[in-house]
Automatic annotation (TrEMBL):
Residues of the LUD domain: 112-211
Any Pfam family hit: LUD_dom
Name used for this protein in its record: LUD domain-containing protein
InterPro entries assigned: FTHF_cligase-like_sf, LUD_dom, NagB/RpiA_transferase-like
Membrane-spanning residues: none
Length: 213
């Protein structure tokens, strides 16, 4: 019996032989615009804010000094009593909250995550033209399950280093070997009659905090 690997090698070998005399592919011209937004930080930030809100995310601007108080206010406002904390989340971010913290070391079960009211994370990037925040499981973000199971996700964006205008600007800054989660607003779907339902396959509520200084 032929193994799967040797069968694959035979198929690929045939493809290579068939293409041996094929002309080289023409060079692709990549002179398209990488952004449709003026190269102005204030304009990019305003566009991100607008598009996040258009996707029904709550959007808030904060200074680093006020960040713990704002996160505490958001958690209290949503009645969150338990909060999942990913590894590497700055300790002072939750200093303004009285919620019970559940630190994730990779062993919180789906049931434990489901019983938590909220999760607070950072992000890898935010894309203004699409109103998207990108997570790549880096420090302060945690594994993907943390941001898919709790009903409330508070995501902090460092405007100075994490906001780009467009997808072509975002992709080169992401490590292709890391798992990425792209979030545009709270989780939502709709049926054939276009009745929108939120919280089906992710958080029902997304709050994005833009730290401006």
């Amino acid at each position: 019996m032929t193994s799967a690997s040797s069968a694959r090698d035979r198929v690929l070998g045939r493809v290579r032989r068939a293409l041996a005399d094929a002309p080289e592919a023409p060079e692709v011209t990549r002179d398209y615009l990488v952004s449709h937004t003026p190269d102005d930080p204030a304009t990019v930030l305003d566009l991100l804010h607008e598009n996040l809100a258009d996707y029904r995310a709550g959007v808030h601007r904060s200074t680093r000094q006020h960040l713990p108080a704002l996160i505490g206010e958001l958690l209290t406002g949503h009645g969150a009593r338990t909060v999942v904390v990913p590894p590497g989340l700055p300790g002072d971010w939750l200093a303004g909250s009285d919620a019970r913290l559940r630190h994730d070391d990779g062993h919180l079960t789906p049931a434990e995550l489901d019983s938590a009211d909220a999760v607070v994370t950072g992000c890898a990037l935010a894309v203004a033209e699409t109103g998207t925040v990108v997570l790549d499981a880096g420090p302060g973000q945690g594994r993907r399950a943390l941001t898919l199971i709790p009903d409330l996700h508070i995501c902090v964006v460092d405007v100075a280093g994490q906001v780009v205008a467009s997808l072509p600007q975002a992709l080169p800054r992401l490590d292709p070997t890391r798992p990425t989660t792209w979030i545009s607003g709270p989780s939502a779907t709709s049926d054939i009659e276009l009745d929108r339902v939120e919280g089906v396959h992710g958080p029902r509520t997304l709050e994005v905090v833009l730290v401006v200084e």
